[in-house]
Amino acid sequence: MGKDMIPLIFLQEGEEGIIHSVEGGLRLIGRLASMGITIGVRVKVVRNVGGPLIVTTNSTRIAIGKGQAHKIVVLRLTDGKTKPA
Amino acid sequence: MVEMDLLVALAGQPNVGKSTIFNILTGLSQHVGNWPGKTVEKKEGYCISDSARIKIVDLPGSYSLTAYSEEERIARNFIINERPDVIVLIANASAVERSLYLLSEFLLLKAPIIVALNMMDVAEQQGIRIDIGLLEKYLGIPVIPMVASKNKGIKALVSAILSLSDWKKEYAPSIADISEDHKGIFMELADILERYISPPYLDRWTITKIMEGDPDITEKMRKTIPPDSWNKVQALLRQHEDSLHAVVRGRYNWIEGAVRVAISEFKRGQILFTDRLDHILTRPVIGIPILLGVFALIFSLTYGMGLPLQQLFESLMNSLATSVEPLLGQSPWLRGIVVDGLIGGAGTVLTFLPVLFFFFAAMAFLEDVGYIARAAFVMDRFMHVIGLHGKSFLPFCLGFGCNVPAVMGARIVEERRIRLLTILLTPFVPCTAKLAVVTLVVAAIFGEKALIISWILVAGNILILGFSGAIVSRLFFKGQHMPFIMELPFYHKPNLRTIGMVTWKRIVAFVKKAGTIIVVFSVLLWFFSYVPGGNIEGSILGFLGRSMEPIGRPIGLDWKMIVALLASVAAKENSIAALGVLYGVGEEGIREILPGFMSHASALSFLVILMLSIPCVATLVVMKQEMGGWRWFLFSFTFMLFLSYISGMAVYQFALLVGI
Description:
Chain A contains two helices and six strands; from the N terminus they run ββαβββαβ. With 85 residues, chain A is α+β, with helices and mostly antiparallel strands.
């Protein structure tokens, strides 16, 4: 099951995942939590083309720098149609 | 009915319409200043109802109440120390979860809270339905549905404030708990810490903050309690590294509870307007050209509408000067101070108003509809190269209008390092005044090639900005990563009231800060250009210019041009007036005679130095204030002098070499 546990940055545009853990300092964890990004939340990557990412949850839409996106580990959700990694 | 005084704090995350509500409640009674000793804006005002005079303090917008940023620290210290009668937490109905997160933090502070659930219309459009009654019941506090942009719910909010301040006893909020598996640690921590926690701090809040790793509270407790107890606390926290997660999880469990009982969503299949627009605007290949187009449009509109007005004001000021002059008698002093100093200085401020007004209004419009956040997003990758991130984009844009509000606009950047760097680089953005000088000199000297030369100068200026950022960030902030997290609010219809307020605020910053300083310095400038010889050649300024001539030689500037540059420190466009006086033709004749005195190479060097050297005094004053100390200010001051001199020399020598 481990293979679908990946840093957020590796999700393609349009893919969704469930946040499994946030590595990094208390500051990052706290800030993300206060903006609605925390363990167990379902996120969708809507923009990921080299620069910062745009991630949406059902109540928010935020831009996250690449560095931070490396520290957020998600469980990728596959809907059957997405090609396996 | 008894008149009573109430203190109410407005709190909320960014992008929830907090300023709109503040503006409606306080109207024209509002006062904008700074929090004591801080570079964070403090807004307060009064709302008068039938039975009470309500003082409303707008707390800085913050996502949470942990002391990670100055804003958060100010908001929570206000609640803890000032104990407002009522806190109004403004929530975004289309993003309830996140707003409730902040609420859960406020509730821990045991303050009487009302939730103002704003943007109900947006939520409705998105298919989100909120049962207000059930939400109130779950939270145990009043919830007022609102559409502030349409003035809906304000009356209900005011009466809720009045009744809550009256009936505190019946108020029993539900409070988010720490997740089940960590209650043990909470109790253990409580055993050690409780006896050391004293008012105004609350036990539960303090212990929770310790578990969250809040830097301020941790430090405060470390100082208060005996070392061996503190070691125990540290050991406990080390054993349970996930304490913060436990606190966060507890809050989200509580939030989920609220969402389950009170909120239902029907949409999701429907593609939101925001999704569709973002699909285009945030894609670099399309987004960047659109961004450039939008700014080209803004500049042409700004100058198209602003310039005619500017000329009108200019001729008005000139006729004022000519009509006042005869009344002043023979004294050259009175004439100098009133005509050159006061009217000249005030005229400068006045003539820049139209262009600045249109420019700032356009920027406020883009901010309000949500576009600036997207612009910041697509610019982020470039900003990273120069050691900044997307949020610095807005202050830079404002800089094209006037550097003063731009430097103050750097406040939106939370990280201190990045904010410092943003302020340091802002003077490299060519402001309206610099552009005016460039346009005039280039047109006079280069004739047909004027347009191209102007573009090259501006583009070169921006490149130098980038280059400086890259160097300074690598020298001083090496290896420090720059976290970039920014909310992209939903696009929405422009709210004229908010746009008006934001524009007004920036215009006031220009008039108050720049205006007063420009007028004072115009008088001083006249003084130094008159004393002791009675004319500019024999004045202190002339003497300074002459004694600096050796420095001017490698950069192709004679003493008159040096004097013009010195004069530009009062206000950039003063350099034109100074040249006019020095060459004895006045401001109008300068176009005709300039080519005779200034070679192409010298003109380029002159303009490069004007653009890169220290900004006007008004900007300097604000920079010092916003940088919060002398160290960085002095560094940036010398950096600009050095850089402008080197660049001026490079341009001059190069121009001579290739024979421009």
